[in-house]
């Protein structure tokens, strides 16, 4: 097979860091398409992932395997990993490299709940299918297909040196410049059997970052963000139900729950942890009916913290980065703020009106023109025409209570009759 030089031009370097999902899939697809259009010499993918969705992994592996631009996947820097779905991307690459101190493997599939699939037959079919996929990728690149398949069937995980010795990767490189030196003159086979020779040394290196839009999409798949979005969305919907009309809390709650639903779709989730998150929200809401922030609120905040701890620590999710300590601080503050706000809403709903017709009733007034049974009263600094509800007589200076408002007429009842007043003098008094 004759090898021809790869296209000239540039070496592109892009980083895939995080959960394999829609965001990274779209970024890789767009980058490969642009690299083909601009005839890039070599695309280097810096990889560090705990795994992700099988559907996204399959799409990304197909894109790499079928690329007309040579693709080198480098797992680095030291401490990085290509676990689960990441192991497939390494095997799909034309050049597979690891930095010292990295590892790959543990590619056994799990359900979205983080556990093995309930049906053993279905689990066996999926494992066999993915094992065959891994073997095919390894065979196509001249690597060890049996060891590659064991990463799926037996969840084997290999260090960088073990992977090189087992021939599931091509070389070790501490950084990208070292990788480019090591692949100088290497021949790789692209789609259709076209063999090309790599000469990246001296080519201009261009960094291709993840766009801001996709960074935001990738961020919501983080465990911390998914847990916060789930809790905050539930809080907002409860506040909307407690004080309807503005639609602000309701709209924000729906949007936050949609964000959380994306994160829960991507991450292996422990349903017990999610239930604890929702239970914590419910307990804080229940505290509304027992008089404010108290023991129930503390229990609710505790449930939120425990739910955040468990939600993404399910089997299969242990490869994901654990929630940072700041998550628990934010959840505690969020829970306290929610309890305080909900208590304020509860008190406001039960507080007597301070304006309008309702505010006038049951309030005291003072007679300024004797009521017989009609006259005038002074109420809140204003003169009102008034009438005694039960009839009778009220002297000037006597206190009455407003019981009903009829247009511009107040119906009142006597509270404390004033002794020693002459009805005649009352009638001659002036306001």
Short key terms for the protein model shown above:
6-stranded parallel beta sheet, disordered C terminus, about 425 residues, 15 helices, alpha/beta, 5-stranded mixed beta barrel, about 20% strand
Parts with pLDDT < 50 across at least 5 consecutive residues: 313-322, 418-431
| Major sheet | 6 strands, parallel
Shape: elongated
Quote the beta fraction.
15-25%
Task: State the distance separating the first and last CA atoms.
Answer: 115 Å
Class by alpha and beta content: alpha/beta
Number of helices: 15
Query: How much helix is in the residues?
Result: 40-55%
Mean pLDDT equals 79
- Record the strand order, biggest sheet: 9-6-4-3-2-12
- Write down how many β-strands occur, each being a DSSP E stretch of 2 or more residues: 17
* Computed CA radius of gyration, to the nearest angstrom: 36 Å
Present the secondary structure layout.
Blueprint: E1 4-5, E2 10-17, H1 22-37, E3 42-48, H2 54-65, E4 71-75, E5 81-83, H3 85-92, E6 95-98, E7 103-105, H4 120-140, H5 145-153, E8 157-159, H6 160-165, E9 171-172, H7 176-182, E10 187-189, E11 195-197, E12 204-207, H8 212-219, H9 223-242, H10 248-266, H11 271-286, H12 295-311, H13 325-350, H14 357-360, E13 364-369, E14 374-379, E15 382-388, E16 399-406, E17 409-416, H15 423-428
Parallel strand pairs: 1-11, 2-3, 2-12, 3-4, 4-6, 5-7, 6-9, 15-17
Antiparallel strand pairs: 7-8, 10-11, 13-14, 13-16, 14-15, 16-17
């Amino acid at each position: 097979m004759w090898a021809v030089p790869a296209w000239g031009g540039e070496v592109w370097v892009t980083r895939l860091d995080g959960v394999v999902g829609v965001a990274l899939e779209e970024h890789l697809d767009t980058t490969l398409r642009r690299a083909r259009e601009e005839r890039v010499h070599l695309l280097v993918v810096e990889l560090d992932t705990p795994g992700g969705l099988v559907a996204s992994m399959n799409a990304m592996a197909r894109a790499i395997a079928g690329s007309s631009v040579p693709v080198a996947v480098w797992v680095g820097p030291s401490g990085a990993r290509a676990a689960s779905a990441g192991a497939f991307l390494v095997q799909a690459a034309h050049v597979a490299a690891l930095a010292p101190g990295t590892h790959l493997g543990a590619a056994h599939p799990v359900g979205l709940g983080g556990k093995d699939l309930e049906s053993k037959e279905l689990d066996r079919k999926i494992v066999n299918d993915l094992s065959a996929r891994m073997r095919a990728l390894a065979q196509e690149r001249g690597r060890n297909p049996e060891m590659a398949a064991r990463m799926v069937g037996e969840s084997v995980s290999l260090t960088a040196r073990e992977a090189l010795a087992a021939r599931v990767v091509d070389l070790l490189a501490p950084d990208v410049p070292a990788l480019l030196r090591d692949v100088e003159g290497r021949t790789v086979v692209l789609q259709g059997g076209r063999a090309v020779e790599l000469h990246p040394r001296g080519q201009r290196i261009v960094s291709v970052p993840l766009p801001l839009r996709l960074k935001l999409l990738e961020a919501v798949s983080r465990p911390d963000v998914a847990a916060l979005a789930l809790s905050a969305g539930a809080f907002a919907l409860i506040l909307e139900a407690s004080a309807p009309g503005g639609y602000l809390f309701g709209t924000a709650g729906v949007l936050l729950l949609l964000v959380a639903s994306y994160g829960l779709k991507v991450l292996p989730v422990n349903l017990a942890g999610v239930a604890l998150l929702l239970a914590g929200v419910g307990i804080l809401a229940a505290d509304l009916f027992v008089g404010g922030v108290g023991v129930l609120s503390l229990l609710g905040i505790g449930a939120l913290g425990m739910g955040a701890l468990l939600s993404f620590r399910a089997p299969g999710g242990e490869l994901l980065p654990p929630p940072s300590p700041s998550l628990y601080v934010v959840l505690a503050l969020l829970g306290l703020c929610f309890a305080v706000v909900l208590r304020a809403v509860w008190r406001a709903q039960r507080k007597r009106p301070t304006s309008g017709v309702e505010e006038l009733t049951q309030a005291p007034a003072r007679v300024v023109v004797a009521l017989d049974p009609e006259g005038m009263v002074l109420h809140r600094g204003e003169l009102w025409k008034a009438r005694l509800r039960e009839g009778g007589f009220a002297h000037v200076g006597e206190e009455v209570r407003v019981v009903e408002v009829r247009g511009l007429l107040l119906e009142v009842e006597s509270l404390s009759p004033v002794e020693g007043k002459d009805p005649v003098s009352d009638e001659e008094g002036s306001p």
